[in-house]
């Protein structure tokens, strides 16, 4: 359903040291596929550290991203589930269990992916199933179910 969110871009972690580690981990698939450079990860970390809790979408979900010129080579999307939740920017008001990392080469190439992600996350049942997922197969089942709605 969501373009670019392939099984290779889905990760799970039982424990991370904090939001910085979560950003590092969610970025790994995009670094490995050369969709982004290290500069992009550093830009996301700096943005969040400077008060970037705006990436908190609610429901324990965050969408990490930065500007294309900060090291995007190809449009991509990855996801990381962490348990227990980590506090975004170490702020108690922002516990996150699902991190997405979005890389877009320009201001429009990712719009279809973002629209589908928005549809998924505003569907209570789909969002809850996604948040509860513990395997890549469960995630793909939720994404594929969204294709047929």
Describe the structure.
The protein is α/β, with parallel strands linked by helices. The chain contains five helices and five strands. The protein has helices spanning 19-32, 38-49, 111-122, 124-132, 136-147, and strands at 10-13, 56-58, 61-64, 76-87, 95-103. A five-stranded mixed β-sheet has the order 1-4-5-3-2.
Helix-strand blueprint:
Elements: E1 10-13, H1 19-32, H2 38-49, E2 56-58, E3 61-64, E4 76-87, E5 95-103, H3 111-122, H4 124-132, H5 136-147
Parallel strand pairs: 1-4, 3-5
Antiparallel strand pairs: 2-3, 4-5
Helix pairs in contact: 1-2
Strand content: 15-25%
How many discrete domains? 1
Taken from the alpha-carbon principal axes, the silhouette is: globular
CATH superfamily: Mannitol-specific EII, Chain A
Largest sheet properties: 5 strands, mixed
CATH topology: Mannitol-specific EII, Chain A
On the 0 to 100 scale, the average pLDDT is 90
DSSP E strands, number:
5
What is the top-level CATH class?
Answer: Alpha Beta
Class per helix and strand makeup: alpha/beta
Order of helical and strand elements? EHHEEEEHHH
**Unreliable segments (pLDDT under 50, ≥5 consecutive)?**
none
Radius of gyration, rounded? 14 Å
Helix residue percentage:
25-40%
Distance between the amino and carboxyl termini: 10 Å
| CATH architecture tag | 3-Layer(aba) Sandwich
């Amino acid at each position: 359903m969501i373009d670019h969110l392939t099984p290779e871009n889905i990760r799970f972690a039982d424990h991370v040291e904090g939001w910085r580690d979560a950003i590092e981990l969610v970025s790994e698939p995009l670094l490995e596929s050369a969709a982004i450079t290290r500069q992009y990860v550093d830009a996301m970390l700096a943005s969040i550290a400077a008060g970037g809790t705006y990436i908190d979408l609610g429901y324990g979900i965050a969408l990490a991203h930065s500007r294309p010129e900060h090291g995007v080579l190809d449009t991509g999307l990855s996801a990381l589930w962490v348990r227990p939740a980590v506090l975004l920017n170490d702020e108690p008001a922002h516990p996150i269990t699902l991190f997405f990392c979005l890389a877009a080469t320009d201001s429009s190439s990712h719009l279809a992916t973002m629209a589908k992600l928005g549809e998924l996350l505003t569907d209570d049942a789909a969002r809850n199933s996604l948040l509860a997922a513990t395997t890549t197969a469960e995630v793909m089942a939720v994404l594929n179910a969204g294709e047929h709605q």
